[in-house]
Amino acid sequence: GFSAEWRGIDLLTVDGDGFNRCEVFDEADLDAALTRFEKLSQPARRLKNAASLVYERFWTCFAAHNWEPLAELLAEDVCYDDRRPVVGAGIRRGRDTAIKDVLAVADVGTAENTTSKVIATRGNRLTLNHMRGRANSGFEVELLNLVELNADEKIGAIVLFELDDFDAAITELDARYL
Fold first, then answer.
1. Residue partners of 25: CB distance under 8 A and separation at least 6
2. What's the pTM?
3. Which residues of 89-103 are buried (b: 16+ CB within 10 A; e: fewer)?
4. Where are the beta strands (DSSP E) in the chain?
5. What is the dihedral of CA 71, 89, 145, 143, to 10 degrees?
6. pLDDT per position as a tens digit, 140-149
7. From the CA atom positions of the chain, what is the Rg in Å?
């Protein structure tokens, strides 16, 4: 039963089709609002280390179907450990086996539709990534993968986890780091 007027400054951010943040500042707090706007406008600092850079080259080769340079990024005795309960392939060893698996994934048609984002690193040789792939058929996969470089800075281990198994992925990352 009363009239009121609020004057303020709204700071909104968008993710996809909707707002993911709303901050309201008093009209007199323009400097604070501008400071916050500048902070949110800065690009997020990209996590990187030797492992993430090698893995980025791996996916660049994958997308370009450049199989020989991709193979050279893998250690001869690379260990591929797929711990996903439903589709997991278990432990597979060796560069030749890894290349066969990579070619099988490429045959599904995900080479052009795969993204990888680093979500954690430990030291210079470990990275944990969020992977998303979509095949031309519409099939999608999303997972976490841990990449470990060996002493020669080649990929010595890849461990796959379900997306919702973040705690196990971090535990494995920390255990390998220690």
1. 8, 9, 10, 11, 32, 33, 36
2. 0.72
3. eeeeeebeebbeebe
4. 8-15, 18-26, 74-82, 90-93, 114-122, 126-134, 140-149, 155-162
5. 120
6. 888 999 999 9
7. 22
Residue 115 has pLDDT above 70, yes or no: yes
Q: What is the DSSP letter of 111?
A: G
Residue 116 and residue 143 in contact, taking contact as beta carbons nearer than 8 Å: no
Whole-angstrom CA distances from 172 to 34, 54, 86 are 41, 20, 20
Q: Which residue has the tokens 């792939």?
A: 133
Q: How far is CA 119 from CA 96, 122, 143, in A?
A: 28, 11, 12
CA angle 87, 91, 94 (to 5 degrees): 125
Contacts of residue 138, defined as CB under 8 A and 6 or more positions apart, other chains included, come to: none
List the structure tokens of 100: 């066969």
Count how many residues are written for the chain.
178
Of 39, 5, 48, 7, which Cα lies nearest the Cα of 21? 39
- Cα angle vertex 59, ends 54, 63, to 5°? 150
The single-letter code of the amino acid at 47 is L
